[in-house]
Amino acid sequence: MLRFDGIEVRTANDGPQAMLAIDLFRPDMVLLDIGMPGMSGYDVARAIRAHELGSSIMLVAATGWGQEDDRKRAREAGFDEHITKPVDRSQLMRLIARPRRPIVAER
Question: What domain range is 64 assigned to?
Answer without folding.
Answer: 3-106
